[in-house]
């Protein structure tokens, strides 16, 4: 099928650029390292790299709409207002920057997790669900919400910062300034922290014996050992799954979502965490006896959901 | 102005029935005690009492639409699926029940906090706000959410159960089965519990001297003393305000609400809690430096927001 749109996913380390057809299938792709050069205007170095990647895939053809998924809080006006993982882009108006590189091409920007939600709703694991939650698990947790068939944007465009829901006010400090944010427990950082805590508390004796020092236990060690079936590692995964379920139950209480789609970069860990979270979720949801169970499923588009969703968003914005 | 609709607020102890005009002003009202008779079909005794109250205000006139606000989780089909404070109504289809009493009259049902949100959005403190949160403080916490100018209903109709967001998994048990639900801290029950804890811990010496026994300290004792300016009571109010702010910050992270409207039966306490919550909120909201501050305001319609909102909902449903 012919390409329908281009989608760009700007991450803290890499920029993924894809062309997709109407089914969301990737028909061409390229990738660049994310520059972290502080420029005037903000985001200019990143925009140049994106333009270069688009030229590789599109040449001078400006007919396809282009969506950009950005790692941070986007205003309704399209300004990246707050981007802890892309400080050089803080305050950038990427639509404007891209238009100067590629005049005549139509651009739209959105938060990366919102893009992932758009992809899963359009052609992935949330197809047919009007009320669902997209959770992107990486170092932190990103979120995209659909309510009544529409993406929830909020009063400034900042909705979906679900990783910063406080679930334990006496919990560990979060870079955002609060304590006990959900992403301190149920993300890549959460796996790493709970693994280290378990190692120091003597609950990972076999793993510590392998690694040599409890302080050196990493999240990946636990994930790998859990995949191999090591009970002590599975117990840590179960703990992280419990926290994942707790946050999902919170979102269900507020939004009455019918489905939760888990995506993001933590794909391998997710295959362990999803069943662990499922096990704990049912008993946690208020009025659970009168609601259909909430399904937790893996993202259809996996790690590519952000770039593909940016493409869908572009096609929906410029039909 | 002429009456536009009737609104009924069914609470755990009383049923409030009002006629409102297009501005939301009450033009007639009456009140009944809520019957708690388990009947077949469910809710029949309550429906009879509502019918009697409507007859008092409307006689046989069936021209006005009637809205019912009900204390529990309502399905999209209008069934009261889960009502811990009105067990006799569990499973009731109140539209159907009311139609048998008053054939020809048009009825609509919704969750009571959703009704309050509709009232505040239509003609109260949330007028002009497309994204806002209605918090009804009573013994527990109810919620109504607007996103993009629309009431968030969710996949089953159960959205807005914000009192059951877990904010402290090691916290006190909640009747819902979880631990540390928000309403264990920031509601009437929260004031009572934190007051008692403070008394037992020796942090309310003057109040305990008055009451005689730390175990007998009630929420009202603290609220009254705080209104009189007693520092030790103000400290408890400040603690409850901190929890109120924490839950609001959570909701802001998820939904990016522009305003929070506080209503419900805890009106007197709310006048103390709102300033206390305001004080703590700003530092708690992620990306607070790039968002406009979130205003926390009192409900314009006060305790009547539920009944008035039920009337607005009826007028909106049957324009």
UniProtKB/TrEMBL annotation, chains A, B:
Matching Gene3D superfamilies, A to Z? Answer: 3.30.420.40
Q: Which Pfam families match?
A: ROK
Q: What PANTHER family has UniProt attached to this entry?
A: BIFUNCTIONAL UDP-N-ACETYLGLUCOSAMINE 2-EPIMERASE_N-ACETYLMANNOSAMINE KINASE, ROK (REPRESSOR, ORF, KINASE) FAMILY
Protein name per Swiss-Prot or TrEMBL: Unannotated protein
What organism is recorded for this protein? freshwater metagenome
Upper taxonomic classification of the species? Answer: unclassified sequences, metagenomes, ecological metagenomes
């Amino acid at each position: 099928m012919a390409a329908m749109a281009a989608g760009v996913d700007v991450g803290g380390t890499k920029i993924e650029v894809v062309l997709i057809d109407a089914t969301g299938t990737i028909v061409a792709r390229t990738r660049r390292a994310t520059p972290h050069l502080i420029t005037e205007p903000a985001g200019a170095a990143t925009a140049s790299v994106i333009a270069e990647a688009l030229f590789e895939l599109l040449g001078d053809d400006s007919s396809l709409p282009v969506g950009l998924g950005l790692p941070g809080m986007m205003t309704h006006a399209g300004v990246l207002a707050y981007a802890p993982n892309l400080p050089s882009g803080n305050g950038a108006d990427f639509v404007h920057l891209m238009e100067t590189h590629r005049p005549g091409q139509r651009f739209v920007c959105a938060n990366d997790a919102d893009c992932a939600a758009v992809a899963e709703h359009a052609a992935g694991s949330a197809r047919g669900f009007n009320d669902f939650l997209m959770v992107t698990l990486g170092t932190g947790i990103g979120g995209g919400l659909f309510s009544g068939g529409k993406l929830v944007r909020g009063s400034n465009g900042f909705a979906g910062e679900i990783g910063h829901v406080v679930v334990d006010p006496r919990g560990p400090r979060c870079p955002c300034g609060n304590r006990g944010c959900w992403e301190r427990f149920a993300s890549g950082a959460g796996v790493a922290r709970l693994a280290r805590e378990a190692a120091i508390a003597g609950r990972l004796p076999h793993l510590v014996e392998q690694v040599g020092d409890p302080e050196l236990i990493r999240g990946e060690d636990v994930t790998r050992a859990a995949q191999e079936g090591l009970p002590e590692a599975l117990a840590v995964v179960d703990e992280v799954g419990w926290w994942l379920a707790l946050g999902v139950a919170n979102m269900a209480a507020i939004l009455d979502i019918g489905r939760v789609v888990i995506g993001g970069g933590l794909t391998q860990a997710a295959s362990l965490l999803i069943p662990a979270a499922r096990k704990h979720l049912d008993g946690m949801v208020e009025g659970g006896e009168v609601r259909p169970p909430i399904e937790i499923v893996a993202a259809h588009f996996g790690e590519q959901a952000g770039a593909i969703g940016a493409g869908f968003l572009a096609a929906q914005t410029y039909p």
